Amino acid sequence: MENSTKYLFLASGVNDGEGFWLVGIKNCDENILEDENLLDCHRKELIGHESAKDILLAINLNVNNLLNELRKKNYSLESPSMGISFDIPLEILENIFDFWLDIYKNQEGWDACLGLLKVRKRISLKNLIESESLKGNSKKWAIKIETLHTYVPSSLRVNKLNDPMWE
User: Fold this and answer.
1) Which residues of the chain have pLDDT under 70?
2) What is the pTM (predicted TM-score) of this model?
3) Domains of the chain: which residue ranges?
């Protein structure tokens, strides 16, 4: 069972009128869209179970880093009851999905990128890139990972209003 192949997928869905994106793993013999909450499948890759789990972990960490970064910058995003907010454009999620699926094929690249992603959870990689601390492929991958974290919504910024002085 552990060595079986699975579908790693990116789909859109609706639950109680609330839209969301979902990245997940399904068995090969299951039709992803048989799930009544899912509407459309945007990415679907047949890969080994352990590989699917590893890639899903990296995708989720990347998305969580992005969402945390946006919250730190005072952007308000919907928090659906399941999945990822529709406030994140499909193109951004496809880029994240494709990058982690592609880099997994290169063990050295995978290990370096996963390490960089874990560092990115705590700090931006910009300083490491600009200070020439990273060289060669590590620098190239750090630039790509940083790019996967650069999405900024056009108008969802929450500006905290000060209470009027006269109240």
Assistant:
1) 1-3, 29-30, 155-167
2) 0.87
3) 5-147
Q: For 109-139, what is each residue's pLDDT tens digit?
A: 999 999 999 999 998 898 888 888 888 889 9
Which of 69, 70, 73, 60 is CA-nearest to residue 25? Answer: 60
Q: How far apart are the first and last CA of the chain?
A: 66
